[in-house]
């Protein structure tokens, strides 16, 4: 066996030994999509947090939520309900926070303000925050994309 033939066999061996890894990485079992979330229920709702945490913190910010970042607040006009939005400002991508005194979501980067339902109150943002459908079941806050 000459050098060229030996190197050819080494290359074939390297490719063959990496094939199982490539197959495992591409398998459906490891793929995560919005519809295959382990925490989502059959009706599409997934738990975000608890009312206890919301009342203690004034807001719940979950950047690891199954359907993207989510910010949950008590609805200022109906405290028995909650509002949930994606906290990413539609102007420059900064994370908004809840200003409980003004009852607005405020962007720290360029001053955009959003109503509790995500609608633009003051620019420079022109598009509303993405809203989630949110509901309470006992002490648990549930949300899903609208």
TrEMBL record:
Q: Which UniProt keywords apply?
A: 2Fe-2S, Disulfide bond, Iron, Iron-sulfur, Metal-binding
Query: Signal peptide location in the record?
Result: none
* GO cellular component terms, semicolon-separated: membrane
One Pfam family name is Rieske
* UniProt cofactor(s): [2Fe-2S] cluster
Q: Does Iron appear among the keywords?
A: yes
Alphabetized Gene3D superfamilies for the sequence: Rieske [2Fe-2S] iron-sulphur domain (2.102.10.10)
The entry lists its GO molecular-function terms as:
2 iron, 2 sulfur cluster binding; metal ion binding; monooxygenase activity; oxidoreductase activity, acting on paired donors, with incorporation or reduction of molecular oxygen
Q: Which PROSITE patterns match?
A: PROKAR_LIPOPROTEIN, RIESKE
- List, alphabetically, the InterPro entries matched: Rieske_2Fe-2S, Rieske_2Fe-2S_sf, Rieske_Fe-S_prot, Rieske_Fe-S_prot_C
Entry annotated with the keyword Iron-sulfur: yes
Pinpoint the Rieske domain residues. 45-143
State the PANTHER family in the record: CYTOCHROME B-C1 COMPLEX SUBUNIT RIESKE, MITOCHONDRIAL (PTHR10134)
According to UniProt, the name of this protein is Cytochrome B6
What organism does the record attribute this protein to?
Hydrococcus rivularis NIES-593
